[in-house]
Amino acid sequence: MATDRIILGIDPGTNIMGYGLIHQQGNAIRLITMGVLKLAKYDNHPLKLKKIFERTVGLIEEYHPDEMALEAPFFGKNVQSMLKLGRAQGVAMAAGLHKNVPIFEYSPKKVKMSVVGSGSASKAQVAAMLKTILSFKDIPKYLDATDGLAVAVCHFFQGDNPQTGNKSYNSWKGFLSDNPNRMKK
């Protein structure tokens, strides 16, 4: 397991994007920061995507993470919502790839299971467990921040061997070769 690394976790969203950064030293982790990017004030979807890209690049330039973990879109009934969420994730992924940061993806259920021990845990349960694990004082107003942090902590718990189904990509070529159905023809 890498003994000294910074992990950026992102919970993509088109109204609120949550993020968290942790520093791993050996088997210990500490909170660097967490927060949200509020996007609801923008009614133009491409502008929201631009803001996600810029904020993600800004976080990378400020904190120099060694790895980035993203929450993968979940499958729901609203196709338009899924499409927008997938775009938000793709833009955050593009920012990481643009800055040569290795990308890892985890399902929402995997993140919750890793942090709380239950894949059906609530946002509040995830936040409370992270407060215990990382010893921070106050749970933030927007739980999207702790959701982003949870993705980083999930990645820490996976060590250098993310389980099958959680892939790492260092380039678009690698991502597209594993996901040919995601490329528009």
**Helix coverage percent of residues?**
40-55%
Number of helices: 6
By DSSP, the count of extended strands is 6
Q: What coarse outline follows from CA principal-axis ratios?
A: globular
Rg to the nearest angstrom? Answer: 15 Å
Roughly what is the average pLDDT, rounded to an integer?
A: 87
Largest sheet: 6 strands, mixed
Order of helix and strand elements from N to C terminus: EEEHEHEHHHEH
Name of the level-1 CATH class: Alpha Beta
Distance between the termini: 39 Å
Q: In the CATH classification, which architecture applies?
A: 2-Layer Sandwich
Q: Considering the protein shown, what is the CATH homologous superfamily? A: Ribonuclease H-like superfamily/Ribonuclease H
Walk me through the structure.
The chain has six helices and six strands. β1 (4-11) and β2 (16-25) form a beta hairpin. α1 (45-63) packs parallel to α2, α3 (108-116) packs across α5 and α4 crosses α5 (143-158). The longest helix has 20 residues, at 79-98. It is α/β, with parallel strands linked by helices and 185 residues long. It is globular and about 40 Å long. The chain has helices at residues 45-63, 79-98, 108-116, 123-134, 143-158, 172-178; strands at 4-11, 16-25, 28-38, 67-71, 103-106, 168-169.
